[in-house]
Amino acid sequence: MHELGIVFYIIRDVKEVARENNVDKVKTVVMDIGEVSTIIPDYLTDCWRWAADKEDLLRGCELKINTTPAMTYCEDCGNEYSTAQHGKKCPHCGSDRTYLLRGNEVEIKEIIV
Amino acid sequence: MDEVKVIEIKKSVFESNEKDADNLRKELKDKGIFLLNLMSSPGSGKTTTLIRTINLLKDKLRIAVMEADIDSDVDAIKIKDATGIQSIQLHTGGMCHLDAEMTRQGLDALELEGVDLAILENVGNLICPAEFDTGNSKNAMILSVPEGEDKPLKYPLMFSICDVVLINKMDVMPYFDFNLEKCTEYVHMRNPKAKVIPICAKTGEGVDKFAQWLLDEIENWK
Ligand SMILES: Nc1nc2c(ncn2[C@@H]2O[C@H](COP(=O)(O)OP(=O)(O)OP(=O)(O)O)[C@@H](O)[C@H]2O)c(=O)[nH]1
Ligand SMILES: [Mg+2]
Ligand SMILES: [Zn+2]
User: Domain B28-221, what fold?
Assistant: First the structure.
């Protein structure tokens, strides 16, 4: 259900870019989605197929998803590590004073027309 | 024919909503309407808590309520029957959260003349509503005892954006292993500034502290 909402935002933004660039058919929309975003790629592409085919601009348009790795920074030892592997606790020093550097983004990278 | 062109966008899908939300926040500020966004899992006690809170505040403030639900009217009717204030139902059409645009539509459907406090009961869900700014002045959430004290660890984003966390259903503490101290510590791990208030919406215990928090926040915001 969350994914459907995201799809509507993508459609809104892509339509705007298409209008600005005088494009009447979009072939592919490329997304950068962080490993620890709350989006499930399969659901997103399912929702996309359903919603995109209702728009002339996007009929048959493919949604391509690049997964970007999530990294966490440790305030105690200054190391960066993979969030998906180690979570909140730093594997170098065991501290939990850590924060996410990147990896929760949901970004429209580009469109191919 | 068939030439391919790539147009770079590099834009977060949340960005348009964030802009809408900031605009709405500014407009509400100009009109002197404080918007509270109330979130929780389904059944944590949002509606019950609102009824108690509104009955404590309705002589001091003019209040209006928007009840968001995927598809039903029961909460809006409950609020109206129990408090007498204006309340409307927003249907999200299957969506698991409200965004700034839907909130604006809800506000447009209300009679806002003289209203000081608008309250939005968001869809029961600990994940999605946290990602969509509704244009609110403050965020509140409810965690009820049966859900367990570990929720701040499992739903970090929700707890990190809330200004106040109400721990509801304190009356059922004897039946659950819920450690209030631990829970408070977990909340503060996510958000050191969040205020934690234990309440029992069923009896009304502690709800006066939340009502006072709201009054203070509205005063500071003015
Ligand atoms: N024991 C006890 N029950 C409570 C308390 N607060 C609410 N309840 C009960 O919990 C149930 C759900 O309460 P609601 O206020 O409808 O919860 P809600 O969060 O608005 O629910 P949704 O809108 O469906 O997400 C009802 O049966 C309430 O009577 C409390 O403090 N103690
Ligand atoms: Mg409710
Ligand atoms: Zn470390």
Answer: Rossmann fold (3.40.50)
